């Protein structure tokens, strides 16, 4: 047990503030006090952290281009179980712990679900005593900060490392490695063997910064290692190694500095979308090469036989962004360890496992051959050889040219990263049952038929410590009062809450907690946005990235529909509703930005229309991210999970809402299907096209949005609103959206699902009127959410993938 007394803590804190800032507590800002507190906590855990790093068990390395870890202070105190002591110690010194929790910067080193999943997985690996470490990039600028100006999204740089420092990190210069870009590769004779020699490359230093990942109540600490790109000599001298490229002048040295530092400068702000830029490819290789070299360096120190590599090491790639792990590991095994091709490929294939997170064509990474060849000549040679051998195998087995084109790594001068990931790994998994089935039967069916044993499902999960225990303390305490503490380590225990489903007293308490959380959020919204919302209204929430397939548009069209109904009949009997949105759009995603402007304009109009008597309110929360999610989710009544069926691979927000007792309003997409299976049809509201129907439309056609528009009055009314001036200031944006729906035949079936969605929404209205019944539904959702803890997901990864056969 990590133990510390109040007195010891106060002494450490006092001496730390002098050593860091040379002044007393009274002069310090909350930001400074938070930095001091993090530093004290790092001292407290130092011993455990070092011990853990010396582990000789099989180690898992989780490579991800994004980690959306959120604020760390509260969650670290919770996991160390020292929150009380620290709180009281600070109180004695006149400091409020909550102020310091809020003063911490929220590192936005990810876009959305993929990056947040990686963070939840780290939490679970540490909490389950699995030596599992993250490798990522220490972006100088994270995801942009979103501001609304006249209802438009404006992006502002996210300068989270204001003083070049993050309070939880420790720099490890002794572990820095060099990553090589460009140059030429020749096969040269070396001891009777052809060896690849790399000349004229540009060396980039990868400087590791370590963040401790603290397990829950188990003294187990893993590491998230983020690499920063730097010049080779920190003193900024000229080095002969790159003299060929940068010929030694001061100007060249500056160019070199720019070239290197640019690599970890900024996170690409795309979610589920492949940017295809050279700099992005540099980032991907930088991450991969730094991480693989780091693993190999540690492995060599341990003096294990290189042929036993897969016995000691599991490397997991989070989507295809780190897929170059495959040729990079091959490169080291071939060129540095001197193994044969067969040995090297065998080791690589038995070490690497791959998760696919999307079936969306625009997210599938494909790199032009020329770009890869020029930037990473040796890596390209290896990819080409893997491809050549694989095509030989396919030819031999199938003799079907179309199939071979679909399955090969290199096709039409592009490198298909998903295919490379499958071919170079021993396990491929999807992130929800439906998603995995679609991978097997549709998108990756050739590979599935070729090697069915490689495919498996791992339904996503969430860290219940952050997403329930820490963000919703009242609910967490209520649960513990009734079923004890065990659920915190074993969320299946939550099922025992079902014993209380007829207990009116318990249901009332649940309702009171929700109202308390809703009031807190109402106060926050009043302070931040000057909008007054009613805690007695239904909080109907859609928070996630803005994307056409997620269909925020369907939500706002329904709001317009309700508004028309209210205008026609101001006495209309509906339960007051507050529609809450939070979403960032990729800066270059025009349609998404138009939808933001639309929602803001609709909000402006409705919120200022006195004639509807505050029956509906619309709030678009600016700059949505992890910390805001922690505030919003505990106060939500209705969780909007309304993507076009087949498009959302899993979703994880859906699980967070469920665990906090919101009712899901959903299509049968991604993990919504599994939420439905858990709670049963009375405790969820489902609508819309099924996956099979969408797949059929996509294959055989048969959908005309124009016909629907012409034949359905309700649809026509809201679609016309986009272009007839009913909503002020959206003339251009309204037209773009209108065209997407009518001219381009509504790719995401918004209008097709509209009637059904209206019905589902009116069902929500009816259900909410019976408060006790609603509360019972909430309870059943909470009680059955245990399966969506990422502890369950990670146990499955460990058993079926990383440690299988161990
Ligand atoms: C997201 C998926 O869109 C989402 O459905 C899923 O829940 C999440 O990953 C975690 O698995 N980029 N982001 C995703 O996929 C890609 C690619």
TrEMBL record:
Lineage: superkingdom: Bacteria
Molecular function as annotated in GO: glycogen phosphorylase activity; pyridoxal phosphate binding
Enzyme Commission number: 2.4.1.1
Reactions mediated catalytically: [(1->4)-alpha-D-glucosyl](n) + phosphate = [(1->4)-alpha-D-glucosyl](n-1) + alpha-D-glucose 1-phosphate
Modified residues (N6-(pyridoxal phosphate)lysine): 656
InterPro entries documented for this protein: Glycg_phsphrylas, Glyco_trans_35, Pyridoxal_P_attach_site
Gene Ontology biological-process annotations: glycogen catabolic process
Keywords, alphabetical: Carbohydrate metabolism, Glycosyltransferase, Pyridoxal phosphate, Transferase
Required cofactor(s): pyridoxal 5'-phosphate
The family this protein is said to belong to: Belongs to the glycogen phosphorylase family.
Free-text function comment from the UniProt entry: Allosteric enzyme that catalyzes the rate-limiting step in glycogen catabolism, the phosphorolytic cleavage of glycogen to produce glucose-1-phosphate, and plays a central role in maintaining cellular and organismal glucose homeostasis.
Name of the protein: Alpha-1,4 glucan phosphorylase
Source organism (scientific name): Romboutsia hominis
């Amino acid at each position: 047990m990590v133990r510390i007394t109040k007195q010891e803590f106060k002494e450490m804190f006092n001496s730390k503030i002098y050593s860091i800032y040379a002044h007393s507590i009274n002069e310090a800002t909350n930001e400074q006090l938070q930095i001091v507190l993090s530093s004290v906590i790092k001292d407290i855990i130092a011993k455990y952290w070092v011990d853990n790093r010396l582990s000789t068990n099989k180690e898992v390395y989780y490579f991800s281009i994004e980690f959306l870890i959120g604020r760390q202070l509260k969650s670290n105190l919770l996991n160390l179980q020292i929150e009380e002591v620290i709180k009281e110690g600070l109180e004695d010194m006149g400091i409020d712990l909550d102020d310091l929790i809020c003063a911490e910067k929220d590192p936005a080193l990810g876009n959305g679900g993929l990056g947040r999943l990686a963070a939840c997985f780290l939490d679970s690996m540490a909490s389950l005593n699995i030596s599992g470490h993250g490798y990522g990039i220490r972006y100088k600028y994270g995801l942009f900060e979103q501001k609304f100006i006249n209802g438009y999204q404006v992006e502002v740089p996210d300068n989270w490392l204001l003083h070049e420092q993050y309070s939880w990190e420790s720099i490890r210069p002794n572990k820095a490695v060099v990553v090589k870009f460009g140059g030429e590769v020749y096969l040269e004779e070396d001891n009777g063997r052809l060896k690849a020699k790399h000349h004229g490359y540009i060396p980039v230093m990868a400087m590791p910064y370590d963040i401790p990942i603290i397990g829950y109540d188990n003294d187990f600490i893993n590491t998230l290692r983020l690499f920063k790109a730097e010049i080779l000599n920190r003193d900024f001298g000229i080095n002969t190694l790159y003299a060929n490229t940068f010929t030694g002048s001061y100007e060249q040295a500056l160019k070199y500095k720019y070239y290197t530092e640019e690599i970890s400068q900024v996170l690409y702000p795309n979610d589920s979308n492949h940017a295809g830029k050279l700099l992005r490819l540099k980032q991907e290789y930088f991450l991969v090469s730094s991480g693989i070299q780091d693993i190999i360096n540690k492995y060599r120190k341990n003096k294990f036989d290189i042929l036993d590599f897969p016995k000691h090491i599991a490397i997991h790639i989070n989507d295809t962004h780190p897929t170059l792990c495959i040729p990079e590991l091959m490169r080291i095994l071939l060129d540095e360890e001197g193994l044969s091709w067969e040995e090297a490929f065998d080791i690589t294939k038995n070490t690497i496992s791959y998760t696919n997170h999307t079936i969306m064509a625009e997210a599938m990474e494909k790199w032009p051959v020329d770009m890869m060849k020029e930037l990473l000549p040796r890596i390209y040679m290896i990819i080409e050889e893997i491809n050549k051998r694989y095509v030989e195998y396919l030819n031999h087995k199938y003799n079907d040219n179309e199939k071979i084109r679909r399955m090969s790594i290199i096709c039409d001068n592009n490198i298909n990263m998903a295919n490379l990931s499958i071919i170079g790994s021993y396990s491929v998994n999807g992130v929800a049952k439906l998603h995995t089935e679609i991978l097997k039967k549709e998108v990756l069916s050739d590979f599935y038929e070729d090697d069915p044993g490689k495919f498996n499902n791992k339904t996503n999960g969430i860290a219940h410590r952050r997403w329930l225990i820490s963000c919703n303390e009242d609910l967490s305490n209520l649960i513990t009062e009734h079923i004890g503490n065990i659920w915190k380590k074993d969320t299946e225990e939550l099922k025992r809450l079902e014993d209380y489903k007829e207990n009116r007293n318990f249901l009332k308490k649940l309702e009171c907690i929700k109202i308390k959380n809703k009031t807190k959020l109402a106060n926050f919204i009043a302070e931040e946005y000057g909008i007054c919302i009613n805690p007695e209204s239904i909080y109907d929430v859609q928070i996630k990235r803005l994307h056409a397939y997620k269909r925020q548009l369907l939500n706002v069209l329904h709001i317009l529909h309700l508004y028309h109904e209210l205008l026609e009949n101001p006495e209309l009997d509906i339960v007051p509703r507050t529609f809450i949105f939070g979403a960032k759009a990729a800066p270059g995603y025009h349609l998404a930005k138009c939808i933001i402007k639309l929602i803001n304009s609709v909000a402006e109009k409705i919120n200022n229309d006195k004639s509807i008597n505050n029956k509906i309110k619309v709030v678009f929360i600016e700059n949505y991210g992890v910390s805001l999610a922690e505030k919003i989710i505990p106060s939500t009544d209705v969780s909007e999970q309304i993507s076009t069926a087949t498009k959302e691979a899993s979703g994880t927000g859906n699980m967070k809402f469920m665990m906090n007792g919101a009712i899901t309003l959903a299509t049968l997409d991604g993990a919504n299907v599994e939420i439905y299976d858990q709670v049963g049809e009375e405790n969820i509201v489902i609508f819309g096209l099924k996956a099979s129907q969408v797949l059929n439309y996509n294959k055989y056609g048969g959908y005309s949005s124009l016909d629907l528009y012409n034949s359905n009055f309700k649809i026509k009314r809201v679609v016309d609103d986009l272009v007839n001036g009913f909503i002020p200031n959206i003339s251009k944006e309204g037209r773009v959206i209108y065209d997407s729906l009518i001219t381009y035949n509504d790719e995401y079936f918004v209008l097709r699902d509209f009637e059904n969605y209206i019905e589902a929404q009116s069902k929500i209205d009816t259900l909410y009127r019976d408060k006790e019944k609603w509360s019972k539904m909430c309870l059943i959702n909470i009680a059955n959410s245990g399966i969506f803890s990422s502890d369950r997901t990670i146990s499955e990864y460990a058993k079926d993938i990383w440690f299988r056969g161990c």
